[in-house]
Amino acid sequence: MFETLALMDGGVVAGFMIMAVALYFTPGADMMFTLASGISGGPRAGAAAAAGISLGVLCHVVFAAAGLAVLLQSYPAAFDLIRYLGVAYLVYLAVQSWRAGSEFGDVRGRAGLFAAFRRGLLTNLLNPKVALFVLAFLPQFTDPAIGPVWHQILWLGLFLALGGMITDGAFGVFAGLMAARMRRFGGVMNKVASFVFGGIAAKLILD
């Protein structure tokens, strides 16, 4: 595992995190749940919700890495197919974000710390879109030539979850202020999300 990390291209990992940061600030169920938890239960509840969501992301990453490892062992050529399916899904997300309008949707938080953590975890685990996104996004930044793809996915997933914990935690802590701003600029942020998803897809096609 650590040997694979040492061989991973620093520029690719940096590019991955730059795109991840852009994604952290796009509206979605996780963001809204964290904001709602912070509003209803205060900063600690918001942070607890973010921790639950991040653990859910890690679970999706582990499942994706394990499944992809088995698939590539049986069908090595499937890697390119997965990449192109990922591009198609990112284009779909871009279109959906563009059409989303100015609303985030109604997502309720939980006031208690454990309740917020548990609900954040379950909300993320039971969201099939997260699993699809992990399968679409993470493999694009891997290189079979430097080591097992599933090793790289686990490392990238860990970075993604840690960054999400920091970002969503900040949203939860500053929920009162942030929620008002998110609702006010919801339409703009959905358009930004569309360009982010579309830009990632375009880059992957050109590469």
TrEMBL record:
<keyword id="KW-0812">Transmembrane</keyword>
<keyword id="KW-0472">Membrane</keyword>
<keyword id="KW-1133">Transmembrane helix</keyword>
<dbReference type="InterPro" id="IPR001123">
    <property type="entry name" value="LeuE-type"/>
</dbReference>
<feature type="transmembrane region" description="Helical">
    <location>
        <begin position="6"/>
        <end position="26"/>
    </location>
</feature>
<protein>
    <submittedName>
        <fullName>Threonine transporter RhtB</fullName>
    </submittedName>
</protein>
<feature type="transmembrane region" description="Helical">
    <location>
        <begin position="121"/>
        <end position="141"/>
    </location>
</feature>
<dbReference type="Pfam" id="PF01810">
    <property type="entry name" value="LysE"/>
</dbReference>
<feature type="transmembrane region" description="Helical">
    <location>
        <begin position="153"/>
        <end position="176"/>
    </location>
</feature>
<feature type="transmembrane region" description="Helical">
    <location>
        <begin position="47"/>
        <end position="75"/>
    </location>
</feature>
<keyword id="KW-1003">Cell membrane</keyword>
